[in-house]
């Protein structure tokens, strides 16, 4: 029996909605300063689909880091919404946001943000420790992620004994521990030489293509941006254009 056109339209809408990992709706951020109010971000609206690898590109001071902080609920917008897996994250209180952030978002930072006094394995386990996951389960999960990223043999090393590229792999492994809905990467190749940076970027592409991870990456590198699925260009606090890469 053929479905009515109205039912077909509803089915299509449902598929499209289910395929959305993240939505930014009219995000606006204003900071107070000694010189007055500073508009860091204005009217940012876009959608990221599940499994999509998106680059946010722009010069220093363009608003791209402010945007990433809002997407990761590290800061609240002056107005606007961020919706992750159907959850309007800024409708939650601070404790609920912290829990949501640990469950749904994986963070990768330019400076790695590893704890040097403990082992690689312990660093990777940290998000699961916060979630009170069983010790044996989190250890097995951490070792599996380290194996996928090619550094399982470094599990008992301290981060200071690793190269920059290896430390960033540890940071990526940590971001994957709770099987997040989305990875947010802030200049993940910024502290690395070109060769190592390209290797780290290749890892992110592998996670996107092989494991269908949803990734939003801030970068100032136009070549890396052109190698993602889509690039969102930010200038003077607003979205200048979006480019879908072939």
TrEMBL record:
InterPro entries, alphabetized: AAA+_ATPase, ABC_transporter-like_ATP-bd, ABC_transporter-like_CS, ABC_transpr_LolD-like, MacB-like_ATP-bd, P-loop_NTPase
Q: Which GO terms describe its molecular function?
A: ATP binding; ATP hydrolysis activity; transmembrane transporter activity
This entry carries the following GO cellular component terms, namely: membrane protein complex; plasma membrane
Q: Which residues form the ABC transporter domain?
A: 22-246
Keyword terms, alphabetized: ATP-binding, Nucleotide-binding, Transport
From the Swiss-Prot or TrEMBL record, give the protein name: ABC-type antimicrobial peptide transport system, ATPase component
Q: Which organism is it from?
A: Candidatus Nitrososphaera evergladensis SR1
């Amino acid at each position: 029996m053929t479905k009515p056109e109205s039912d077909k339209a509803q089915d299509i809408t449902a598929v499209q909605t289910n395929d959305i990992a993240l939505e930014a709706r009219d995000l606006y951020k204003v900071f107070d300063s000694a010189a007055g109010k500073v508009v860091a971000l204005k009217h940012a609206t876009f959608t990221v689909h599940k499994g999509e690898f998106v680059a946010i590109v722009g010069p220093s001071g363009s608003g791209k880091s402010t945007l990433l902080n809002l997407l990761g609920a590290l800061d609240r917008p002056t107005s606007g919404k961020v919706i992750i897996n159907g959850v309007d994250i800024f409708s939650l209180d601070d404790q609920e946001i912290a829990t949501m952030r640990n469950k749904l978002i994986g963070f990768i930072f330019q400076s790695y943000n590893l704890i040097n006094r403990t082992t690689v394995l312990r660093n990777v386990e940290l998000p699961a420790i916060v979630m009170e996951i069983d010790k044996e389960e989190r250890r097995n999960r951490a070792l599996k992620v380290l194996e996928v990223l090619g550094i399982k043999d470094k599990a008992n090393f301290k981060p200071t004994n690793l190269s920059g590229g290896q430390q960033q792999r540890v940071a990526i492994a940590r971001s994957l521990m709770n099987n997040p809905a989305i990875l947010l990467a802030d200049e993940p190749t910024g502290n690395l030489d070109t060769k190592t940076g390209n290797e780290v970027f290749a890892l992110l592409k592998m996670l996107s293509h092989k494991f269908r991870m949803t990734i939003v990456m801030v970068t100032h590198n136009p070549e890396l941006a052109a190698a993602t699925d889509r690039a969102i260009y930010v200038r003077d606090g607003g979205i200048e254009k979006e480019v879908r890469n072939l």
